[in-house]
Design goal:
Elements lengths: L2 E6 L4 E6 L2 E4 L11 H19 L6 E8 L5 H11 L7 E6 L9 E8 L4
Parallel strand pairs: 4-5
Antiparallel strand pairs: 1-2, 2-3, 3-6, 4-6
Helix pairs in contact: 1-2
């Protein structure tokens, strides 16, 4: 099977494609001063763009992992997620409270998607 990387740096790649699976690195907001809802929107826009570069989209999500810094803001993240995710094909998902690499980040997301059948 082939292995392809997109946006690779010294430490990590943003996307790894192995066979028919597209793995995204954890995504965080560019504007960390934003609130939970806006950080979530920024992340989902990044996910959309990375999935498109890999040849797939949110309708082919298989799984998602979500880390939030404060469960008191969990509903706000879910509101944005629910408006974005494909209601016909929601992925399996885990969400936990965690300390993120920078204190200003409120949420981080990582997804795996399938490549569409050709």
């Amino acid at each position: 099977m082939t292995l392809q990387f997109i946006d690779s740096g010294r430490r990590m790649s943003q996307v790894a494609i192995h066979g028919k699976a597209v793995h995204l690195a954890g995504q965080v907001a560019d504007d960390a001063s934003a609130g939970m809802g806006d950080q979530t929107r920024q992340i989902l826009e990044q996910i959309d763009a990375l999935l498109a570069r890999a040849g797939t989209d949110k309708h082919h999500l298989v799984s998602a992992q979500v880390w939030v810094t404060d469960m008191a803001e969990f509903a706000e993240m879910n509101e944005v997620w629910d408006a974005w995710v494909s209601p016909q094909h929601p992925p399996v998902r885990a969400a936990v409270q965690a300390v993120l690499a920078k204190p200003e980040w409120k949420v981080e997301m990582m997804v795996i998607a399938a490549l569409p059948e050709s």
